[in-house]
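Reopening: Hexosyltransferase still failing for me.
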Amino acid sequence: MQWRRRRCCTHTAKLLYLLSLLGVLIFLVHQVWLPKLTGTSMKRGFPVVFRAGGLHAAKWNLSSQHSVWRFLLIPELRFRADANFSSHEKLGVSSSEGNSHSTNPQTEHVSQRKQDANGTQTHRPFPYIINEPDKCTENRPAPFLVFLIATEARQVEARNAIRQTWGNTSLAPGLSLIRLFLLGKTEGELGLLQQKMLQAESQRHRDIIQQDFLDSYKNLTIKTLMGMNWVAVHCQQASYVMKTDSDMFVNTEYLIYKLLKPELKPKTNYFTGNNMRGFAPNRNKNSKWYMSPEQYPDEKYPTFCSGTGYVFSGDMAGKIYQTSLSTPHLHLEDVYVGICLAKLRIEPTPPPNGFLFNHWRVAYSSCKYSHLITSHGFSPNEILKYWHHLQGNKRNACINMLKGRAGRAH
Ligand SMILES: *[C@@H]1O[C@H](CO)[C@@H](O)[C@H](O)[C@H]1NC(C)=O
Ligand SMILES: *[C@@H]1O[C@H](CO)[C@@H](O)[C@H](O)[C@H]1NC(C)=O
Ligand SMILES: *[C@@H]1O[C@H](CO)[C@@H](O)[C@H](O)[C@H]1NC(C)=O
Ligand SMILES: *[C@@H]1O[C@H](CO)[C@@H](O)[C@H](O)[C@H]1NC(C)=O
Ligand SMILES: CC(=O)N[C@H]1CO[C@H](CO)[C@@H](O)[C@@H]1O
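Support: Ran it again with your exact input. Result attached.
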């Protein structure tokens, strides 16, 4: 009896041993096949995205331009550099520099006159309606950072909030910052009215550039390329550029002093943000982020940075713009820039930690917001509110939180 029991126990032990081996095996297989996300926080971030913030969060939720839900996650495969990069591609931008100071801004064209190898014109030029060709040269020393902020004519309040907060160009003493809002044009009666107001706003703030293309979600790529071209033509000496949106909270100081570090020699071939690695095109026709197999046949996008906020060295503006001339446009602006980067064989640099660039809304606390660069989905009033709170609590952003916790504990 005793012998049999012992024997049975060794059997059980063996069985357990085998089971645990199997477990380890399954675990390992998972590790290999699960997508490796830089900042795995992203996955954890999902439920956090729109949890806090009540009404406003709802307003900016799934319908938001850069929602994380637009992609399917698939296992990581190596990106095939299928889009062949013609080696004779020259870097730098062939600019119509000659008339950049033209008295009639209407006639100034973005230099999109290049044709691709097949002689098919993939892009046509869009003339500027409003430009600031001297903005950069007026600034001495050479700009450290240029903000390119995608916005629409009607978003006056958002622009004003940004001017007073994270887009204030005097935030970094001794460094020159430039803020530019990027716009297309609106059609119809409303468009005419908005245009008048926009002209006045431009006269007052001198921080608007606008080209003659229809301002629509599907034209965001054109808008971004307008900004890249502006930097390449009018501001080659800029050390860094950030492209972001008007519903964003940006911690400009953290970006400048903790990430970019003005005391160092400016980087080149540098591109960073919320790295989206291993994402597949959304093939659901009803989705806002639908990508047809005709437009993008590959099963996976190259690594790209969420369009809610990415940062790059000044030299990249011209390189990306130049590459775009031979790259058929896709309406998803950030994916498109990622494709240009892949063609250039420049891999986005992962940020030092996964919490810096958030393309969702991080619940506000002065402690968290003093240690991040972007958070997404804010009304103009919220930008003002949180910005001022953060400024008021900058020195002890986290101490207050600890005190608060201690207080609650008692
Ligand atoms: C997102 O917002 C829309 C309205 O803007 C609302 O109808 C919808 O229920 C919201 N979804 C969630 C998940 O909050
Ligand atoms: C790119 O083009 C070169 C020469 O045209 C060719 O040898 C190479 O196989 C191509 N690469 C890809 C990935 O298509
Ligand atoms: C920008 O910041 C400076 C210095 O902090 C401040 O004096 C100025 O009023 C701010 N500008 C705006 C438009 O808020
Ligand atoms: C983009 O802008 C161009 C030029 O104004 C316009 O013809 C085109 O319809 C726009 N595309 C979309 C999808 O709005
Ligand atoms: C006229 C011409 O150059 N046609 C080329 C267009 O592109 C395809 C594929 O890239 C080539 O095979 C053609 O020769």
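The chain is about 40% helix and 15% strand. If you still see a failure, please send the error message rather than a screenshot.
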